[in-house]
Each structure stands twice: as structure tokens, then as C-alpha cells.
Design brief:
85% of the residues lie in helices and 0% in strands. It is built from three helices and no strands.
């Protein structure tokens, strides 16, 4: 559901920019939409490796993968937060 909502939000923001809205609509929309390919191309391989039954959960590899996943999730969350703050700033402008 998160991917669908990101796509809808991105499309709405880009459409609003396209009909003469401020550039912030485009920036926020692209930030919001960027989490989808980031998740699929960067985070998903780490998720798959973490879910692999052959992974020894007490190994240093599993610790490294969990640490990597944490950082990647933080990047994705930061992009979503920046998009939200961008949209919020548009509301504050009136």
C-alpha cells in the first residue's frame, strides 16, 4: 500500500506543479516518488538476504546486513520526511 500511496502522492504533486504551482510541488513529489525505486533497487536485495534461511543469524554478516538495512531505511524515511515538510511549507504559505 505504501508504494501505491507514494505513486498517487507523486502524481498529484507533479500535476499540481504542472498546472502552474510552485516548484516545491515538483520537488516534494519527486522526493515522495523516489522512495519506490530506492526500496526496490537498494533495500529489497538486503531484505531478501536477511530473509534467506541459509543466513546464520548469529554471524557477523547478519549484523552487517541489519546495520545496512537500518541506514537504508533511515535514508528512505528522511526522503519521505523531506517530502512531507515540503508539502507542509506549501500549506503554510497559503
Amino acid at each position: 500500500m505504501q508504494a501505491v500511496l507514494s505513486l498517487v502522492g507523486m502524481a498529484a504533486a507533479v500535476a499540481r506543479w504542472g498546472v502552474g504551482g510552485p516548484l516545491a510541488w515538483l520537488i516534494g513529489g519527486l522526493l515522495l516518488g523516489a522512495v519506490i525505486p530506492f526500496t526496490l533497487l537498494v533495500i529489497l536485495p538486503t531484505n531478501k538476504r536477511l530473509l534467506d534461511v541459509s543466513l546464520d543469524l548469529s554471524s557477523s554478516e547478519s549484523v552487517a546486513l541489519l546495520t545496512r538495512w537500518g541506514w537504508l531505511h533511515a535514508v528512505r524515511s528522511a526522503a519521505s520526511l523531506l517530502a512531507f515538510l515540503t508539502f507542509l511549507s506549501l500549506l503554510a504559505r497559503g
